[in-house]
Amino acid sequence: MTGMTVVLCIAMIVAAFVSILGKSLPIAILAAGLVSLVASVLFLILASPDVAMTEAAIGSGLTTFLFFFVLGRVRGGEHDGVENDGSEHG
Questions:
Q1: Is the pLDDT of residue 43 over 70?
Q2: Cα–Cα dist 26/21, whole Å
Q3: Torsion over CA: 58, 62, 63, 64 (sign)
Q4: What SS3 state is found at 46?
């Protein structure tokens, strides 16, 4: 159990550094989700299944989904709502 905990902690640290230092936003979002998923596995190993389920559902699932949703809206929504044909109406 101790060896598995050490391996998961190292994986979480590596994923955190990938999330912080990553140049690509989707990779950073996935790495942050991986940190949360590994944390939920660690909570399960440490005999805290209620916290593990909450972390997996909220931290890993919902947060990662929201980050990708907002990223899609920011990238795709630059021209939403206002159409500019170059002419001024005034």
A1: yes
A2: 12
A3: positive
A4: coil
Going by pLDDT thresholds of 50, 70 and 90, the confidence category of residue 75 is: confident
Q: Is residue 62 part of a domain?
A: yes
> What is the average per-residue pLDDT within 14-21?
95
Cβ pair 43, 51 in contact under 8 A: yes
Report the predicted TM-score, pTM, of the whole model to 2 decimal places.
Answer: 0.76
DSSP 48-86: -HHHHHHIIIIIIIIHHHHHHHHHHHHHH-TTSS----S
12 in a domain, yes or no? no
Domain residues for 51?
25-74
Average pLDDT value for the chain? 87
